[in-house]
Amino acid sequence: MSPAHRAAGRGPGRTAASRSSTRLLAVAGALLIGLLGSGTMVWHGSAAVFSSTTSNAANSWTLGSVTLADDDTGSAMFSATGLVPSSTGSNCIAVTYSGTVATTVKVYASASADASSVAQYLDMTIVEGTGGGFGSCGSFVAGSTIYSGTLATFTSTKTAYASGVGTWAPSSSATKVYKITYTLNSSVPSAKQAAVTTATFQWEAQA
User: Which are the contacts of 152, defined by CB distance < 8 A and separation ≥ 6?
Assistant: First the structure.
């Protein structure tokens, strides 16, 4: 058989096989497109849901305050001069709390000077109470004695809120009167004549 006849014999078989392969590819492609289309429809269907919400609006947070004031109008409680052994004196001061939260008020020495070491001979008491005010203790009613000792001990050990003294614990606007009394101890040496000592009393509220 000549080469031409062999080529002609193979031609029809190969053409049929090619057509069969083409049909298979077309069917596979159609199935793939169908599956992709079906998946897209399912995805879109899953994205559609029912929904409902509720809310609580206008929430706010306001901080509390601690506020103290006194009635001394900027004047010292004591400006004592000419003291001699056993000299004594007292004065009152009204401290007002106008804060919005519960607190405890303490008094301490925020500053002092005692170059001549005379504060050790000044005996002092601090009493909490009611009635009276700055420059007038006539109507003072004593409550708790919150300090009894020397001025020197007070100014060296009661120097901050943590070491301060006091039992007053207001939770709303209120006033407390403090009466401070001093006495120059009779044991003060003659060498202390004309000596000067100073102190600053400070009230503080914390919460």
Answer: 114, 117, 119, 120, 122
Number of other residues whose CB lies within 10 A of the CB of residue 20: 10
Can you read off the two tokens belonging to residue 56?
Answer: 């609580």
The per-residue pLDDT for range 41-60, each reduced to its tens digit, is: 444 456 789 999 999 999 99
pTM of the complete model: 0.76
- Residue 190, helix vs strand vs coil: helix
Distance CA 114, CA 17 (A): 120
Helices and strands: H and E segment counts in the chain: 2, 7
DSSP alpha helix (H) spans, 119-186: 151-157
Q: How far apart are CA 67 and CA 71, in angstroms?
A: 14
Greatest alpha-carbon pair distance for the chain in Å reads 155
Please give the residue range of the domain that contains residue 6: 1-48
Write out pLDDT tens, residues 59-100.
Answer: 999 999 999 999 999 999 999 999 999 999 999 999 999 999
Classify residue 57: in a domain, yes or no: no
Residues 130 and 88 in one domain: yes
Number of domains in the chain: 2
Q: Is residue 124 part of a domain?
A: yes
